[in-house]
Amino acid sequence: MSAAPLNPMDLSAPQVLKTIGRRSLGIGLVFTAVSAVLAWVSPDQFFRAYLLGFMAWLGVTLGSMAILMIRHLTGGGWGMVIRRIMGAAMRCIPLMALLFIPLLFGLPRLYVWARPLDSIPDAHLRQHLEVLTKTYLSVQGFIIRAILYFAIWNLLSFLLTRWSVEQDRPGARDNSARFKAVSGPGLILYGFTISFAAIDWVMSIDPSWISTIYGLLILIGEVLSAMCFAIVVERILVNYKPMSELLKPDYVQDHGKWMMVFIMMWAYFSFSQWLIIWAGNLPEEITWYMTRLSGGWAYVGLWLVVFHFAVPFVLLLSRPFKRDIRRLVWLAIWLMLMRYVDLLWMIEPNFSARVHVTLADVVVPVAMGGLWLAYFFRNLSSLPLLPAYDPEAKEVLEPVHES
Length: 403
Known about the structure:
- The chain is an all-alpha fold.
- About 75% of the residues lie in helices and about 0% in strands.
- It contains 18 helices and no strands.
């Protein structure tokens, strides 16, 4: 005998999310105040930490949008059960656009190409920058491209959100074709825009070095951090209805499989970049790795090999481990920390020859994270945890109706 179907109110987010959101905002504001002091006392360290925190939280935001579009193209209950989690994270793009503005005030402190050319003592680098600043790396071009990136990301988020909200009302049309029509080109646009954004915002810190795989490393890191974040949130929600009834071990296992895929892709792209540069053995290409193989940074790289890839890979080979959300969540949290370390390893050696972690490197990302989480939980609380009138939601809802 079947129970009465759930109504949209049955799918509303638990009140605990608002409590977590308020606490996150409080933490964010306190750490923001400390960050302001650090910005005044040590602006160089502040802007480096700000870029680190910005790229970390942008990764969760854009990675969530990418996973959401993958789900619209492939279907499946694994994506439906976290669809609103991904959507709430995606809708933080306007916040990230706002948080991008302070970076503009730190351009000369972060990027040598943003400084007056006559202030650069290295004649060879100065000559190289004369060409780059006329063709690509200019402050005006940097800002225009950033506006374009955020415009594209916001447009994709707007369309995906608008059609998703329609499916919270009875008699909603099937928007599956619309989602697919946007998600296919949207994934291509995401790949292009984040690749160029990675060049502009991170790789150009060292304008004498270039890698064609760099954008892919940033991209795959974003989707990995987004999937890990979704697992953390569903672990919180599984203690409350309706997620306690919607989340099945099969879905958790699928999320673990996605984590494993993204980890392997990260390892593949990282090794491919190293192998190509090592095989070429060109002085202008090996400098990036030579910097990161000295001054203690080599140990950070080895730590990433072991604890960002090898250990998580072995753990995710276990089927019982992948099906247990209470164990999988700890690995998800760990991998989000490893994403931070990976970004630190990419950014900080450009400024410090030896391993150097400052107070700002901790405080500023936490401040940004507190504000981001407050906005995220506000987004997540504003809609039901499942679009009840989406025809594809039936796969997730049906088991709930059985008695």
